[in-house]
Amino acid sequence: MTSTEKNRRLGRGLSALLGESETEGYSPPAEGGEAPRTARDGVRMIPIELVRPNPDQPRKSITESELDALAESVAEKGIVQPILVRPVKGDGEVYEIVAGERRWRAAQRARLHEVPALVRELTDRETLEIGIVENVQRADLNPVEEAHAYRQLIDRFGHTQDDVARAVSKSRSHVANMVRLLALPEGVLTYLAKGEISTGHARAIASAPDPEALAHLIVTRGLSVREAEKLARDAHSGTAPETKASPDRQEADKDADTRALEADITARLGLSVDIRHGNKGGEIRVQYKTLEQLDDVCRRLSGENRGAA
Known about the structure:
This protein is an alpha/beta fold. The protein has 14 helices and 7 strands. The protein has helices spanning 3-11, 14-18, 64-77, 101-109, 124-137, 143-155, 161-167, 172-180, 186-193, 199-205, 211-221, 225-236, 256-269, 291-302; strands spanning 44-47, 51-52, 83-88, 91-99, 114-119, 273-278, 281-286. The strands form 2 sheets. Strands 1-5-3-4-2 form a 5-stranded mixed β-sheet, with helices on both faces. A two-stranded antiparallel ribbon has the order 6-7. Mean pLDDT is 77; it is low at 7-14, 16-26, 30-40 and 243-252.
């Protein structure tokens, strides 16, 4: 395949790759009704146990609260957009997900027996490309996952930054800036993936002598992007950043019990939890990305789930 052909295919965007024109006539079953096993638009109803996830799925983190919220919607309205699958070689009865793993997992939680799906014969390369484009266009990836996705399209498949930008409906500068983040130390990328710092923070300290140390200061002090930029300028000029926080924001080193409690609450909520304790008390920070996640936390705190099965 020539470079022009590769670029043309990726540049078509997700709708063309998924063949969404074939799903225009699809609608989920009416409340209390059943969807047909097959439909003229090419959507098929596939037993949920015959579908398996893609091990190369670009998105690695799916929170429990996200799945719970989506499962509620699926139970009430059904799956509005069919998932995309491909037949597993050597086993014509089993299908691998190309796009729509969250919908499939939510359908399991909603106790559906079948899922609507488009079946396509796709290569490993096409499967990965579509998975990346779908996740980026839906804003389902954290910044580090997004950066790795762009890097895969560029390094593994030979696409240019312009090609990738067109495919995911982003600017070329956005793609370039995201890929540059991967040069940061692993500790900084961990903060970024967990949402403890933003991409603005990460870019501000990217060229500093010790980005990881500055990222730690940003997190412990709750610094803004502008404050992070000043911190980086001071580091470049040889001015040692102030290491002693004000008494109200001073954070003691976390002991094993505190970290264990963080892990326990994180597992229960399905959201990242940070406990900060100092001489004058402390605070608990819960990271959320969507209003549905916030709503779920509020319901738990208000005790609405008491007595639920």
